[in-house]
Amino acid sequence: MTGNDRITVDPDVLVGKPVIKGTRIAVEFVIELMARGWTTEQILTEYDHLTTEDIRACLMYASDVLKSERVYPTPPAA
């Protein structure tokens, strides 16, 4: 993964889910809002302590996780 200083993982915060540093807002929550059609502006209005860079960091984190994912084919049943 790339060095993303805006995203942090702490087992004592949201059971270790990646969050925006200094908040309890999970990366997955921001991604879900965007998937449901929220714009960056809507997120920033509703969560006014976030920045555009925080939202971009969430997207980059999700991209990095997906890039590292590997899928191995299952051999056919005998």
Describe this protein with a few key phrases.
single chain; 78 residues; mainly alpha; two-stranded antiparallel sheet; 3 helices; 5% strand; elongated
Tell me what you see in this structure.
By secondary structure, this protein is mainly alpha-helical. It has helices spanning 27-35, 40-46, 52-68; strands at 7-8, 19-20. It has a two-stranded antiparallel ribbon with strand order 1-2. The protein is elongated, with a radius of gyration of 15 Å. It starts with 6 loop residues before the first strand and ends in a 10-residue tail after the last helix.
Task: Describe what is shown at a glance.
This protein is mainly alpha-helical. The protein contains 3 helices and 2 strands, in the order ββααα. It starts with 6 loop residues before the first strand and ends in a 10-residue tail after the last helix.
